[in-house]
Amino acid sequence: MVRMSAEERREAVIRAAMSEFARGGYAGTSTESIARRVGVSQPYLFRLFQGKKGLFLAAIERCMEELQVTFEEASEGVRGADALVAMADAYTGLIAERPELLRLQMQMFVTVSAAEEAGDHEFGASVRAGWMRLWDTVHLPLGSDVDETTRFMAAGMLINSLVAMGFPAGHRVWAGLGTPGAADAGSEGSEGPEGPEGSAPGE
């Protein structure tokens, strides 16, 4: 059996935390479930991260990093309308392939809202910084046009909401999004909202 290095173990813990928090949210996820998923003890987990909050921060920061890389790679060498289509297609393909990234985004927005209400601003500061990095990443390929960047980010949030609600590919709600990949963001092979084929990707 090959022994993982400390860095490999840390990476495995972050991946496990992303999956567990995406499924159960911050309040509904135990550090025990994350440790069990990786096959480590909780004390070892806490040597890598400063408790549950540290794990959640690492998970959401990694999520935002992966979104940023997706946009960077998709927009390399293209600008304007071509960049918009490339980034939109790359994003919708990503969340179709890895629906836990969509669910983790939804969970982190809920968690930030609750934390801010309680006077804890650490989660919000991390998510807002990540959001601004995403904004800056797409802003230049879209011609540094504030209106275009706003529309792109707004469309992305709409896609998140529609996919999370389980609207299938081909449904009329996708018609106004205007990019080829947007319609494909719905459930593959779905025939409507009835039954299991109407569920969101990965459910």
List the helices and strands and how they pair.
Layout: H1 6-24, H2 31-38, H3 42-48, H4 51-75, H5 80-97, H6 99-117, H7 122-139, H8 146-164, H9 180-183
Helix pairs in contact: 1-2, 1-4, 1-6, 4-5, 4-7, 5-6, 6-7
Summarize the model shown.
With 203 residues, the protein is an all-alpha fold.
Q: What does the largest sheet look like? A: none
**Which stretches of 5+ consecutive residues score pLDDT under 50?**
188-203
- Our measurement of the CA-to-CA distance between the termini, rounded to an integer number of angstroms, reads 33 Å
Oligomeric form of this entry? Answer: single chain
Query: With helices defined by DSSP (H or I, 4 residues minimum), what is the helix count?
Result: 9
- Mean pLDDT value: 87
Number of strands: 0
> Considering DSSP H and I runs of 4 or more, what fraction of the residues is helical?
55-70%
Categorize the overall geometry: globular
Beta-strand fraction estimate: under 5%
Query: What class do helices, strands and sheet pairing give?
Result: mainly alpha
Order of helices and strands: HHHHHHHHH
Rg of Cα set: 18 Å
Structure report:
- The chain has 203 residues and is mainly alpha-helical.
- Helix content is 67%, strand content 0%.
- Helix 1 packs across helix 2 (31-38).
- It is globular, with a radius of gyration of 18 Å.
- It starts with 5 loop residues before the first helix and ends in a 20-residue tail after the last helix.
Task: List the main descriptive attributes of the protein structure presented here.
203 residues; mainly alpha; 9 helices; 0% strand; globular
